[in-house]
């Protein structure tokens, strides 16, 4: 069984090569594979009919209870014979339908063969998942087959429609299958049918499965894809859309009816939808002019009929259904093939242009007569026998069955009507149309259709011989089998025969009034499902664009706002529903002393103000104010050390901001809309409140004693009085080590970004500009006298690029701020220069003081370093970048490195002289003049921090300050030169 | 440190935990991470000391070797796990080495290897990375660097550090370790995102967005940790789980809201990393802006790592409050599957489309998370592996299709028209990947989808599965649209230039195809050997804590 399946896929893989070697005759070779399958099925048939299914089960993914399980019972046998048998004939037909130079024929042959394999797998599958897999494979292959004529837009669109509809249905079905499998505890079809689970969930699962089945079989409301799919080459239509793929849905209904045929939802859906489809599609077929479309709507109608029969849930209906299934395959496939022959021989399928083919193609005409007679249900053909038993099955049922019977009769009237229309349209003489010229089809081209038509003919008389075989399936339906009916050509005179007569009479009437029928049909036409489908697609597209426009604006504030809102909602819900405020927490104090209110208010006002200002600089200052406010609060809280550090850091960052902002536009480029600003304000306030509330209550959850109670004693032991400083340089010196390393890295990062030109010069780049020592500055007279305003301002030579090595020999300088001489006159301010010069020593002294007293009083290396850095900043601001170079002769990197070395050295010194790394010591020195000096090794450590911080600030000033100055100057020069050139 | 001072501190505090002597850690179990870390550090040193000409080769050998070695070690660790228990916790129960950890780590390492190959691709065209990231885009300076053939070999150590974070993320057994892993993983990625060679401003914008949003999400995660700590008095997963199961650790009375808000906040942090709606906004922008190999790395490895962490957090510490977090996850999963699928329909850029598809897939995996069952865990893990291979392959294909003018990647889908005619193999591979994304049978995508949906149905989340299926139908629609475009449309006038895949990229695509087909046709071995065996009698609705080491 597995080898039969595998043979198909191997043949499919070989097909392109075969086609390349043998041209279209390769199809004959490929036909051997389904032919062999048919033979194999026939050999198995006696055993299967005797009630001994053939099966095989291989574990595949046991974790998900998936297996490769195949099983052939009577239903499987019938379907296999249809799929493989008709497949064989279709492949033979293909060998004459196509020409050798058909583009993409190799691929087509492969896909068609693979499709035959997938279809076979579908009908033989005994595992739900595997069933789904083959189901989807047929979808994909049919998509490729329908889209065979890739040049045609219509063809591509039809393929896409078929794929979308059937995939949607298939996926829905997957859910149903999983639900069914989970409910049953097994995914094996045979086991599920043997012991079907029941319940509401199973009913839902069945409905979902039916959606898949109905979409595959093109029943309402999914019928739109099948007529569109008629863009496919005729063999494909004949195989997929008459015999094989569309039968998959019907097959699934037939497969599950023995288990669920009595479920009301099942009956309503299958019978109701089936009969409705039968009537509506039949009515539509009556007004088609394209022979293929006529057959397509006819197929939809017949599929509705089959579904209604097989889903009805009685034994007799099932028998009629499976007989009708065979009959339909045997008459619809040859009709499609005939249309292909006509198309091929005359070049048209429009029945308004065809005339006189009855005489020019007699063989084809007689084949068609047989097939059409079977389709219309004329004795003594197979279709008649099947239809008779169908009518009989619904004859004595409850009211809904009678209603269904009426519907089926109406549908059959239409069937007879369009059957006659087909025959008349394709073959008969039409007085107003000239006889269509034909070139006669070859024998092999006609043979497949002839074989099928002959089987249609034989099926009638031998219906009673088929009865025991087909009953093998019908008997599995446990309901309504009290007086089992039998399949036979002649049931005697009874209601069914009367109904058949009615149908024939009605059909003849419709045919004779065909002009009026077409007119009426067009008048009463329902909205074209294709248009609805396209509208839905267009609506999805529009919706998608709108949703994208709303959610994906590319705007960071919007993204962040979305996240924040969700956050507030997500965590707000448990807070409100859980009544967080009832938690046992210390009571909220408004303030310790009313003075705290002032900085808090200032902070809040500044924060809100940031939202409303348009100038960047102002915004930065306001942000700084919030920082100062927090620092003030620290101070009121009794943490002057923290407050000092915070003040200093705020100041430095403010200056850094200002330095950077020079390169940015003064105002925010995109004005914030008032509405958006209000929303932002709201979101910000909500998030802030949430965070504050949570911070409060999270802390309220604390039960362990806080570590801070131990700090005073610890600081005392460490020989210091300033707890913060002691923590930094002693108790948690390890942390500080890490932090200053990070600082050093950050400084390196900032510098490397700004100095990229120098530090990461391309290998083939120019050599650096040679550097002249700086003291040359003092020797040069300041140029740029007011008499020559257009002259280029004085620039010390060779220092336009920050030098790699700056070797400076200290030299007494008569100027206060020598570097300031390099500034343009309008940038200089005497007052500022004088103040800066005067303040600088004081600031440095203060920084050293902070460094030294850090251990016992306010201060510390970090604060001291920042203060010294601020001094440098003042000098830079007053005197420009050359002043900065002159102020500190060391490179920032050297300072940073030195700082790190000292800190690390202290740490290692502890290990060498003490007991472990960072072990400290206290020395009380008595120096005669100065007096008592309390020194700890941590002071040395702090000194390292001090140097490092100075280095960091120097680095920032050099890169963000001096470097940007340079850029500005260069740009000014370039633009000036450009102006000169244009002048 | 000052001993006296410390002892003073010690006496004041109630219960000092001072270790005497080195801690006893089973380094063998941590060896994969240690190898990656060591290679990252060596890579940094190589940047400093290896001559420029030999740097790339050195870095490449180092990185590939380390990842390979780590993978071998990971596989060998599978045998070292105890047969009966779920796994072992190491380093004071901060890291859990159990089957899920090893499976995810192994997956991450293989995917990282593939991404590294893409990163290393340097064949006929220049690499995907900027010659000099610090040069102003469009400046003379940049041109000089490009002409000089500068390259950023720092990429390799950065990737290794990110990889370290990714390995630790799903293995972390307490919240703080997990947070550290999150940061170690994210920070290099923020940087790597900004290094694209083409459209550099775009790339930098993406990096800034990713960084800012990521920083916020990390902050939320940390906040969540604080609240959970407030509730449970511990950050260790096992302790938290115990507290949750026992209705509080006695730390705080009626602390439920703290726990729930904590779950919400930590959840937001994790959901941001996996890119679930409404925290997905960064994904399209970043995936599009980042250099494509980095996008591949993020789409595969980061997603696996983030979901690994998500699964562990929601299954172990929060496993006892499934009924509380499930509604939230339902909403997020539904939003993710529906919104992303709908938006994806309009995308005209292949990378953006893949980004949205990654969001949709995150939604599918969330359905398995919601199942909170061993099947859910197994399904999610299989899905992650399957999706990872497919997506790496897809991005590898993207790197090869370049636009005529400029030579950048041809992102716009209209340029892909008719690719199936001009380069059938490449288009065929992409077609296969797209079919796998759509979940067509016989590809790994189908088995994955089946696994997660089955788990969700078994856990009673059928409506979720129905929505998932509908959304996968919508996604299938646009995947197929690309296939149609490639195979059935006329090649565009100004068609793209398709590079011949160099060795590394070719290998990645081949591996992607092989894994997609193999996992689709024959998933048994992977499921058997690597996945934890789901316990037979597991009650749905209770998180499968016994599959994780605690």
Automatic annotation (TrEMBL), chain A:
<dbReference type="InterPro" id="IPR046806">
    <property type="entry name" value="MrpA_C/MbhE"/>
</dbReference>
<dbReference type="Pfam" id="PF13244">
    <property type="entry name" value="MbhD"/>
</dbReference>
<feature type="domain" description="Na+/H+ antiporter MnhB subunit-related protein">
    <location>
        <begin position="831"/>
        <end position="954"/>
    </location>
</feature>
<keyword id="KW-0406">Ion transport</keyword>
<feature type="transmembrane region" description="Helical">
    <location>
        <begin position="933"/>
        <end position="954"/>
    </location>
</feature>
<dbReference type="InterPro" id="IPR050616">
    <property type="entry name" value="CPA3_Na-H_Antiporter_A"/>
</dbReference>
<dbReference type="Pfam" id="PF00361">
    <property type="entry name" value="Proton_antipo_M"/>
</dbReference>
<dbReference type="GO" id="GO:0005886">
    <property type="term" value="C:plasma membrane"/>
</dbReference>
<dbReference type="Pfam" id="PF04039">
    <property type="entry name" value="MnhB"/>
</dbReference>
<keyword id="KW-0050">Antiport</keyword>
<feature type="transmembrane region" description="Helical">
    <location>
        <begin position="266"/>
        <end position="286"/>
    </location>
</feature>
<feature type="transmembrane region" description="Helical">
    <location>
        <begin position="402"/>
        <end position="424"/>
    </location>
</feature>
<feature type="transmembrane region" description="Helical">
    <location>
        <begin position="858"/>
        <end position="878"/>
    </location>
</feature>
<feature type="transmembrane region" description="Helical">
    <location>
        <begin position="200"/>
        <end position="224"/>
    </location>
</feature>
<feature type="transmembrane region" description="Helical">
    <location>
        <begin position="593"/>
        <end position="612"/>
    </location>
</feature>
<dbReference type="InterPro" id="IPR007182">
    <property type="entry name" value="MnhB"/>
</dbReference>
<feature type="transmembrane region" description="Helical">
    <location>
        <begin position="318"/>
        <end position="342"/>
    </location>
</feature>
<feature type="transmembrane region" description="Helical">
    <location>
        <begin position="105"/>
        <end position="122"/>
    </location>
</feature>
<feature type="transmembrane region" description="Helical">
    <location>
        <begin position="158"/>
        <end position="180"/>
    </location>
</feature>
<feature type="transmembrane region" description="Helical">
    <location>
        <begin position="890"/>
        <end position="913"/>
    </location>
</feature>
<feature type="transmembrane region" description="Helical">
    <location>
        <begin position="128"/>
        <end position="146"/>
    </location>
</feature>
<keyword id="KW-1133">Transmembrane helix</keyword>
UniProtKB/TrEMBL annotation, chain B:
<feature type="transmembrane region" description="Helical">
    <location>
        <begin position="258"/>
        <end position="282"/>
    </location>
</feature>
<dbReference type="InterPro" id="IPR001750">
    <property type="entry name" value="ND/Mrp_TM"/>
</dbReference>
<dbReference type="GO" id="GO:0048038">
    <property type="term" value="F:quinone binding"/>
</dbReference>
<comment type="function">
    <text>NDH-1 shuttles electrons from NADH, via FMN and iron-sulfur (Fe-S) centers, to quinones in the respiratory chain. The immediate electron acceptor for the enzyme in this species is believed to be a menaquinone. Couples the redox reaction to proton translocation (for every two electrons transferred, four hydrogen ions are translocated across the cytoplasmic membrane), and thus conserves the redox energy in a proton gradient.</text>
</comment>
<feature type="transmembrane region" description="Helical">
    <location>
        <begin position="422"/>
        <end position="444"/>
    </location>
</feature>
<keyword id="KW-0520">NAD</keyword>
<feature type="domain" description="NADH:quinone oxidoreductase/Mrp antiporter transmembrane">
    <location>
        <begin position="172"/>
        <end position="475"/>
    </location>
</feature>
<feature type="transmembrane region" description="Helical">
    <location>
        <begin position="208"/>
        <end position="232"/>
    </location>
</feature>
<dbReference type="GO" id="GO:0042773">
    <property type="term" value="P:ATP synthesis coupled electron transport"/>
</dbReference>
<feature type="transmembrane region" description="Helical">
    <location>
        <begin position="464"/>
        <end position="489"/>
    </location>
</feature>
<feature type="transmembrane region" description="Helical">
    <location>
        <begin position="155"/>
        <end position="172"/>
    </location>
</feature>
<feature type="transmembrane region" description="Helical">
    <location>
        <begin position="380"/>
        <end position="401"/>
    </location>
</feature>
<feature type="transmembrane region" description="Helical">
    <location>
        <begin position="294"/>
        <end position="315"/>
    </location>
</feature>
<feature type="transmembrane region" description="Helical">
    <location>
        <begin position="353"/>
        <end position="374"/>
    </location>
</feature>
<feature type="transmembrane region" description="Helical">
    <location>
        <begin position="501"/>
        <end position="522"/>
    </location>
</feature>
<keyword id="KW-1133">Transmembrane helix</keyword>
<keyword id="KW-0813">Transport</keyword>
<dbReference type="GO" id="GO:0012505">
    <property type="term" value="C:endomembrane system"/>
</dbReference>
<feature type="transmembrane region" description="Helical">
    <location>
        <begin position="29"/>
        <end position="49"/>
    </location>
</feature>
<keyword id="KW-1278">Translocase</keyword>
<dbReference type="GO" id="GO:0050136">
    <property type="term" value="F:NADH dehydrogenase (quinone) (non-electrogenic) activity"/>
</dbReference>
<dbReference type="Pfam" id="PF00361">
    <property type="entry name" value="Proton_antipo_M"/>
</dbReference>
